[in-house]
From TrEMBL:
Protein name, UniProt field: Conserved oligomeric Golgi complex subunit 1
Domain of life: Eukaryota
Similarity comment: Belongs to the COG1 family.
Keyword Membrane: yes
Length: 321
């Protein structure tokens, strides 16, 4: 009879169906099974008790270690506070001094990085200005880029890095300036093509003439002669024989061009207020609005006042007009 059958045996049925010998045998088997179950119970209780004792010992050890750690931390806090109270002034002075020294050593590199970033960003803004045919703004940005390039290569002093090192560390500087330098001819060409147009307004004409004067660095008389030559060239183009344009249209366009040219020449170049502090011609007014004493700085064209880079731009760049 299996163990499973022993656990489910019915005593009445056992006495009815089995002999005395079989009943005695079954009794012995039940006693053996009971003893085995008791032993298993003792083992199970013993193991659980041992685990419980070990867990209790571990918890007690953790409690002791935690108390020791808390005690050490409290002692460290007390010592740090005493040390801070004892040497507080000295620590502050040393920290400020070392911080100032570190910033002083890093400043030339940060200033150089700020100027390089400006030189990288300006071409995009020049392109945008030229797309909008704002050649005067494009010229201002070009001159600012030229000034930054000069500052990087030729400035000297404690706040600047030697030009040789700048060119050695950043060969891209030369390539970037070579790219930017091409804008000068593009701006001048755009201005002069604009000045040839018959339907030209006075504001555009004065801006283009001021741009030419700004980039060429010549006298007002030279720019005036250049303007007249461009208008004469435009007149010759109108008078050239063209099957699609009638003689009447050519004459009308020619008269319009001549009248407009005389008006522009008078407004842009002739100063009727010679005795006054305020110039009378538009070109000079345009230039004074850019390079005059009360004119905004060229760096303001980049709208960097709220940018962290603005604080590291050298004053020689910030004050440029």
């Amino acid at each position: 009879m299996s163990i499973q059958n022993l656990s489910s045996i019915c005593p009445d049925k056992l006495f009815e169906e089995c002999s005395v010998a079989e009943v005695q045998t079954t009794q012995l088997k039940l006693k053996v099974e009971v003893e085995r179950k008791r032993e298993e119970l003792r083992t199970l209780v013993g193991e659980r008790y041992r685990d419980l004792i070990e867990a209790a010992d571990t918890i007690s050890a953790m409690k002791n270690n935690s108390e020791k750690i808390i005690t050490h931390i409290e002692r460290m806090s007390t010592k740090c506070f005493e040390l801070q109270e004892k040497h507080l002034v000295g620590f502050k002075l040393d920290t400020a001094s070392s911080c100032m020294e570190r910033n002083k050593n890093r400043k030339p590199y940060i200033m150089m990085g700020a100027q390089l970033k400006l030189l990288m960003d300006i071409p995009e803004k020049i392109w945008a200005a030229m797309d909008e045919e704002d050649y005067l703004l494009a010229a201002q940005l070009y001159l600012l880029a030229r000034h930054i390039n000069t500052s990087l290569q030729y400035s000297s002093g404690e706040e600047y890095i030697e030009s040789k090192k700048v060119l050695q560390w950043f060969p891209v500087l030369t390539r970037q300036w070579n790219t930017i330098s091409l804008f000068r001819n593009s701006i001048l060409t755009g201005c002069r093509e604009k000045l040839k147009i018959v339907d030209l307004n006075i504001e555009t004409a004065s801006s283009c003439l001021a741009t030419d004067l700004l980039l060429e660095g010549c006298s007002l008389a030279v720019v005036e002669q250049m303007f007249l030559n461009l208008r004469m060239e435009s007149l010759h183009q109108i008078l050239e024989y063209d099957h699609q344009t009638s003689i009447k249209e050519q004459i009308c366009l020619s008269l319009k061009l001549l009248a407009q040219t005389l008006h522009f020449r008078h407004a842009c170049f002739i100063d009727e207020n010679k005795d006054s502090d305020s110039p009378g011609n538009l070109v000079t007014k345009k230039l004074l609005a850019i390079v005059g004493g009360d004119a905004p700085r060229s760096i303001d064209l980049l709208n960097l006042q709220n940018d962290s880079i603005y604080n590291y731009i050298p004053e020689i760049i910030k004050q440029f007009q």
